Amino acid sequence: MTESDLRTAAEEIHDQFSDDLDVAVSDVEERLRTLVEEYQVPLEEARRSVTSTYLDEAGLEREDVATGGGGNDHVDVADVDAPEEWVDVTVKVVDLWEPTSESIAQVGLLGDETGTIKFTKWAKSDLPELEEGAVYDLGNVVTDEYQGRFSVKLNKTTVIEERDEDIEVGENTVEAEGALVAIQSGSGLIKRCPEEGCTRVLQNGRCSEHGEVEGEFDLRIKGVLDDGTEVTQVIFDEEATTDLTGISLETAQEMAMDALDTTVVADEMREDVLGRYYRVAGPTFGQYLLANDVEEGIAGPDPESVLIKARSI
Amino acid sequence: MSSAPRREVARRVFAREFNDASYVFKESDDEMAPNYALLPTGERANRVFAVGTLTETEDIGSDAEYWRGRVVDPTGSFFVYAGQYQPEAAATLREVETPTHVAVVGKPRSYEDDEGETYVSIRPESVVDLGEAEATYRTWILETAERTLERIQAFDAGEDGGDPAAAPNEYAAMARERYGHPVENYRRTVVEAIETLETAGAEEPAPADD
């Protein structure tokens, strides 16, 4: 450990508290030096101890300040893949939702070119309002995870700076491949609610929101892709469904009319797509992947390398 | 992850290994708990996906229709049984013209006869006639080879001769206890299966069947 390590650590701690406490870097350095030189405490422990002291003085919680020192990584939202990391992002406010609790000041969706991510801003953090459609540099946000989905949380130390620019927000694209092992109910020829902005799928001619309505026909397949290790639920929209099965919306309506039954369409589709391999890519929607790009048939592993592996075990 | 029970993955297993998977168990005492067949390479299988050549079908039912299909892969045969509770699969077996390539998704079942001999079969959720589907069959063989090798590699995890850092393989321990089949047999099965392809599939793999 060198003199400059002490100095660097002191500056980093100082920077964390510069908004909340009036302390000089030399004070911080002195506290560190006492622990490290007089009491032989390792530097990281000393840093932790000194940080705790200032946290108490400022009346802050540890998660309110960035730990570990140094600048955060500036990340794309699609790259957020672990909880409890301190990062900086440049994002557009895509959507603001109604907070479900008084402890939340604002909640909604942020996005950059790589995708979108949920954010939460706590009431107690006392930060300025974010406006929908505006673009911000957010310094010092913490990542979080709930049931496999990531979010960022704004906190007392978050630095918000509005930018005078726009961002084209991208969709989170995921890929999956495997055999289509099942087609779920609600596939084939379906009817949707015609109310403006609704599009819910009707059950027995009823929309769960608008009651009995004259539905509009649509085609889709809700399928399960399975690669032998994991399953992915996939939705193929009208266009993708027609591409896969050769059945157009018009043909499907004729088939249903002839049979006096809409289920013949799904039955026919089952024969066309079940048991085949597909590679799909698209954004996720709830637990479904929306298959915007569909490729039928995958080559599978390379036979040469499988053989080499089999012989080497 | 979600509140609904997760859909069980369809394991990839060659017929030779599948027919050795005679031990069936549950993970809990719950009557509704899913059944698993224990694969000898150390994995549990609640569902399997197989592609092969349907060579024979026969209605072996006495009162009601009960169809048996024989689906051949490079290592052996899967037996598929479909009756009134699997109407779509039964209809396919009734109407299909053999030989043809089929894709089968279904649940492993095990049956012990009066002599104590155990037979493992598939109760299908679906049997689909793929017609002539060399590319799909080829993909399935390669994928099944790869998955089987992965299971063999994980078999000794946490044991002597395996990855000492890995957690012990619960189902491998179960397989050691239940079966006398060394996993080496299944490694050889993989090699044989791939070797059938090398001659058959020297040309470019077709991207799709139709």
Keyphrases for this structure?
heterodimer, A: 313 residues, alpha+beta, OB fold (Dihydrolipoamide Acetyltransferase, E2P), five-stranded mixed β-barrel, 16 strands, 34% strand, elongated, B: alpha+beta, three-stranded antiparallel beta sheet, 5 helices, 29% helix, globular
Unreliable stretches of chain A = none
Distance between the ends of chain B: 37 Å
Query: Which sheet architecture does the biggest sheet of chain B show?
Result: 6 strands, mixed
> Which structural class should the secondary elements of chain A be placed in?
alpha+beta
Instruction: Provide the CATH superfamily of chain B.
Output: Nucleic acid-binding proteins
SSE series of chain A? HHHEEEEEEEEEEEEEHHHEEEH
What gross morphology of chain A would you assign? elongated
CATH topology of chain B: OB fold (Dihydrolipoamide Acetyltransferase, E2P)
Helix content of chain B: 25-40%
| CATH architecture label name of the largest domain in chain A | Beta Barrel
Determine the structural class of chain B based on helices, strands and strand pairing: alpha+beta
CATH 2nd-level architecture of chain B:
Beta Barrel
Strand tally of chain A is 16
CATH superfamily heading of the largest domain in chain A: Nucleic acid-binding proteins
Portion of residues in beta strands of chain B equals: 25-35%
Number of helical regions of chain B: 5
Your description of this structure?
The complex is a heterodimer of chains A (313) and B (210). By secondary structure, chain A is of the alpha+beta class. Chain A has three domains: 3-64; 73-163, Nucleic acid-binding proteins (OB fold (Dihydrolipoamide Acetyltransferase, E2P), Beta Barrel), CATH 2.40.50; 173-296, OB fold (Dihydrolipoamide Acetyltransferase, E2P), CATH 2.40.50. Chain A is built from seven helices and 16 strands. A five-stranded mixed β-barrel of chain A has the order 2-3-4-6-5. In chain A, strands 8-12-13-15-14 form a five-stranded mixed beta barrel. In chain A, helix 1 packs across helix 2 (25-38), helix 1 (3-17) runs parallel beside helix 3 (43-58) and helix 2 packs across helix 3 (43-58). Chain A starts with a helix and ends with a helix. Chain B is of the alpha+beta class. In chain B, strands 1, 5, 6, 7, 8 and 9 form a six-stranded mixed beta sheet that branches. In chain B, strands 2-3-4 form a three-stranded antiparallel beta sheet. In chain B, a hairpin with a 7-residue loop joins strand 5 (47-59) and strand 6 (67-73). In chain B, helix 3 packs antiparallel against helix 5 (184-200). Classes of the chains: A alpha+beta (313), B alpha+beta (210). At the A-B interface, strand 8 and helix 7 of A face strand 1, strand 5, strand 8, strand 9 and helix 3 of B.
